Amino acid sequence: SWSIVDYYLRPKLAYYAMKRELADITINTKRIVEEIPADRYTRAHVKRIHKVQIFATNLSLENHQYLLRYQGWDISTGQPVFVEKTPRPRILKYNRSTEICVRELGDSETASRMVFAAYLINPEDGFIISRSVNWPEPLRYIQFPAPKNLRVDTVRGQGIGNAFEVQCDVPVKGFVMEVDDGEKRDIVLEDNCVDLVPGEAVRIGVKGLESVQEPKITYRYLKAAIDL
Fold first, then answer.
1. Which residues are CB-contacts of 97 (< 8 A; sequence separation ≥ 6)?
2. What is the 8-class DSSP label of residue 11?
3. Whole-prediction pTM
4. Neighbours of 137 (CB within 10 A)
5. pLDDT tens-digit map of 81-125
6. Which of 135, 153, 138 is nearest to 196 (CA)?
7. Phi and psi at residue 79, in whole multiples of 5°?
8. What 3-state class would DSSP assign to 15?
């Protein structure tokens, strides 16, 4: 089916992906490969350099300031490879897409082991406006490590509504949550099917949590399914 909701109007995972991409301000990444032949006659001795293009879109009618941060991790260990950020705020102009920069990842072997994430950050309060996590493809060739410390914490109130905060010690692809509140079906997640990287707590807003003291949370991700 091409639908983004089911018969009962419950969102499918495609709904959340579309919701993220249709936000006013988004950041995205794309992997490219630059081929450099040893000389102009050869087609065999070619050096391939993997890079990531970073671009952002502002669909609003006002300019916005942002800080850019991007980081790479080794997929197998979860250890950071590099962390870079802009020293001062930049302007994201209205009603257009903007090519921000291109970051080199290295050769094929290095790039195949690296997950890359880029963030647009509000310079006033430090909140993440948008994020993009980029994986080497095809995904079936990735050897995902088993998480040792995957946490889902319930955050109630604190002025910005109820939410779940999810964090993990290794990169995780396609983290999907399901919250069971019995027959009520009052709980609505504002986001789902997110990618996790070490050192970041992803906040997922939730509505209808007030009537549930200890919700039963079920989660799964690529190559795993776990019940809490």
1. 55, 56, 57
2. B
3. 0.90
4. 10
5. 999 999 999 999 999 999 999 999 999 899 999 999 999 999 999
6. 135
7. -80, 140
8. helix
Spatial distance between the Cα atoms of 189 and 205, rounded to a whole number of angstroms: 6
Q: What's the token pair of residue 222?
A: 């690529």
- Evaluate whether 176 touches 195 at the Cβ level (below 8 Å): no
118 phi and psi, to 5 degrees? -125, 145
Other residues' Cβ atoms within 10 Å of the Cβ of residue 6 = 11
Strands ordered across the beta sheet of 188-189? 151-155, 163-167, 202-207, 188-189
Is the Cα torsion angle 161, 187, 10, 219 positive or negative in sign? positive
DSSP state string for 87-135: SS-EEE-SSEEEEEEEEEEESHHHHTTEEEEEEEE-TTT--EEEEEEE-
| Sequence letter at residue 112 | S
The amino acid present at 93, given as its one-letter code, is K
Cα 194-198-202 angle, rounded to 5 deg: 40
Can you tell me which residue has the tokens 């069971």? 180
